[in-house]
Design a protein that fits this description.
The structure holds two protein chains of two kinds. By secondary structure, chain A is mostly helical. Chain A has six helices and no strands. Chain A is globular. In chain A, 50% of the residues are buried. The N terminus of chain A is likely disordered. In chain B, 61% of the residues lie in helices and 2% in strands. In chain B, helix 3 runs parallel beside helix 8, helix 5 packs antiparallel against helix 10 and helix 9 runs antiparallel to helix 10. The radius of gyration of chain B is 17 Å and the shape is globular. The chains are: A mainly alpha, B mainly alpha. At the A-B interface, helix 3, helix 4 and helix 5 of A face helix 5, helix 8, helix 9 and helix 10 of B.
Amino acid sequence: MQRQRSSPTRTDPVNGSESSTRGDLLLRALTAAGAVGVGGLLVGSLAGPAASAPSPAQDVRILNYFLLLEYLQQGLYEEARAAGGLNGELNRFAAVAARQEREHVASLRSALGGDARSKPEFQFGEAIENERRFGAAAVTLEEAAAAAYIGQAANLTTKRIPMIARMVPVEARHAAWIRGIVGREPAPHAADPAREPHEVEQTIERTGFVKRR
Amino acid sequence: MSNDADSRREAPDELGFTLADIDRDEAIAEGLSIVHGETRARFLGKLAFGSAALVAGLASPSALAASPEQDVSTLNFDLVFEFLQSSFYLGAVRDGTVAAMRPEKERWARVLGAHEVAHVKILKSVLGKKAVAKPFFNFRGVTEDEAAFTRTAVAMEDLTVALLAGQAPKFHDRNLTAAVFSLLTTEARHAAWARRIAGFVPVAKAFDEPKTLTEVDRVVRRTRFIAARPRTRSRRKPELTG
């Protein structure tokens, strides 16, 4: 399931330290079989970094891709805060990041207007009840968002890039902060790798956070 | 690329780290050796890995050959800034300030320094003969004092984020935009890490404020850290067009 396309030695921030639950395994099996997969939910048809000519139609696809990632982060942080199981710096992180992701969601929705996708239903499970699971989930989502932005931001039309360029570093700051809190290196690369949409989609599918319709 | 003698030789030994220690997927070491030694065609073959947008974008055949002069000027400005940062961290290592830090903080300072050294090498490689020479720096005692060093590091990393957030959208070449985004996120991680080490909230706002080249240049001049700007190797001076 886990194919490392970029380099055999690359550490995957998603699976580096997480063990699989039976639920994860089941989801993987289902996804692999294509039974009720969320394939296509995220990305439709997006090309690799800086590979396709920008267009307003492509902007809608890319911005909706970003919007889903922001919905996910906002949802995780808000629900974890509501569940009340977070303490100390982890709780402060969730509070600050929830507010900022909410602003990102609002900006993307405003840029998309009537084309904005609606917020899916989420099921965060243990990630909002257990501090260790929350930390791991937050690292996964923040890393996915940062890498997704790096991979697609340059494919936007010229007028859309400045707003995104102000959001990208905030996602990276979140990633560094949560990594520091959970005891992982905040800046593991001299230059952050991009991830292609299908890789990000696989990451999201593996979390099982998006409810199937 | 474990057999790559060139990239090993160029590792920042002064910091006590090699690029391989820092860059776990070896994308930078690989990129450097490729930029230095291999043919473009071979490089493009490796581009399919897409492991580091920075190296990929900066070293792609279209990156500089077809770039307008303004892209080159902007990259040169970024290079001066990376020179400033790498010299700053190296200075603190040389002054013994870094070795005296608590272990967690020492690691932070060394990792950031190594990353900035890597950024200098990459930008220099890409700019080739168009690269500006390294200015002379005078940090006026800041690298000798842990508290002053830390405060300045926070300000410098935040300023780099503002610089790159402002510049990334302005490159004419989209490959450069994509590449600079992967540099921007690294600098943003540095800034967040520095702020956390210094006891500040790592992420102050939902949107980072971009700064123009002119604004950043004004801040840098105020520090008087750049003691002398050597003549540029290219005939044209870098333009400060925000």
